[in-house]
Specification:
The structure is a single chain. The termini are far apart. Strand 5 and strand 6 form a beta hairpin. The chain is globular, with a radius of gyration of 16 Å. It has a five-stranded antiparallel β-sheet. A three-stranded antiparallel β-sheet has the order 2-1-3. It folds into two domains: about 45 residues, no CATH class; about 80 residues, OB fold (Dihydrolipoamide Acetyltransferase, E2P), CATH 2.40.50. The longest helix is centred in the N-terminal third of the chain and has 8 residues. The chain is mainly β.
């Protein structure tokens, strides 16, 4: 197997997602938000489906709780074979009910992850390219529990 087969897939930013990728490149998380009604939108949209207002990217805390998760046992995505098993969660962010973002859970074994776990975003480099991605780590209070 050649070395490139073990590099994770790289993002392909487009006009709708460019704000997200610029923010992670700067080391923080920003999501799409309506300028008029202030609703957060994920995935990003050019116009708000509620009020048809224009949208843009704004910072979010990155704090939230695990809404759902899966544990990956088989190497389905190149570049993560050495991390098996790992957990991918859908995290509901504190900014708005229903505002959910997928990402890997780091800093915990898969059997330590549960629905309702409080997590915080970390922005880490994605191997094989120039991109950074959001991952989730348990919040400090969760580690003491």
């Amino acid at each position: 197997m050649n070395a490139t087969a073990e590099i994770p897939p790289q993002p392909v930013p487009d006009e709708d997602t460019l704000g997200f990728w610029r923010a992670t490149e700067a080391g923080h998380l920003e999501l799409c938000r309506c300028h008029d009604c202030r609703r957060w939108l994920q995935p990003p949209l050019e116009r708000c489906p509620s009020c048809w207002g224009e949208t843009g990217f704004e910072p979010v805390s990155g704090n939230g709780e695990v809404y759902s998760y899966i544990v990956v046992h088989q190497p389905a995505i190149p570049g993560y074979r050495d991390q098996l098993p790992y957990t991918v969660a859908l995290v509901e962010l504190d900014e708005q009910p229903g505002l959910r973002l997928p990402g890997r859970i780091i800093g915990l074994e898969p059997d330590q992850v549960q629905v309702g776990l409080r997590v915080a975003t970390e922005v880490v480099s994605l191997p094989g390219g120039d991109f950074k991605v959001a991952v989730f780590a348990p919040q400090e209070a969760e580690l003491r529990s």
